[in-house]
Specification:
single chain, alpha+beta, 4-stranded antiparallel β-sheet, 4 helices
Length: about 130
């Protein structure tokens, strides 16, 4: 597995939250696939796709008619695009901030973002909920 750095780590009421910086796109995809609706909404707000694209053409998160998860595919593609550190660099390097939660000896990746502030906010929200 490619190198990872711990950017944040805190334990509250037996729940440990950490934010890792990873260059591993497969690990980021695994975390993305684990994200619930709330986490996806948090990521959507962080990525702000409506500032880049015509909002009328954007897929809607949590749309019951989106049976092929087009919103999820769009969100993943946007995440990967924004995770690119330097588009001119060869080879291309992407970095992801992944929020992991450990409670009762079970660890789960709950959130992934291309930026540190978004991941930190999400991690602190999880800590507040655990307190």
């Amino acid at each position: 597995m490619p190198k990872q750095d711990i950017f944040f780590e805190e334990t509250v009421a037996g729940t440990r939250i950490e934010v890792l910086k990873s260059y591993d796109e497969a690990y980021a995809r695994e975390a993305f696939d684990n994200m619930n609706e709330e986490a996806r909404e948090h990521l959507w707000a962080a990525l702000r796709p409506e500032e880049t694209y015509d909002s009328a053409g954007l897929p809607k998160l949590n749309d019951s008619e989106d049976v092929n998860d087009e919103a999820g595919a769009f969100l993943w593609d946007e995440l990967v695009d924004q995770a690119l550190e330097d588009p001119r660099a060869v080879p291309r390097v992407s970095s992801f901030f992944i929020v992991n939660e450990t409670a009762d000896s079970h660890t789960a990746s709950l959130y992934v973002s291309p930026d540190w502030p978004s991941a930190e906010r999400y991690a602190k929200e999880r800590l507040s909920a655990a307190a």
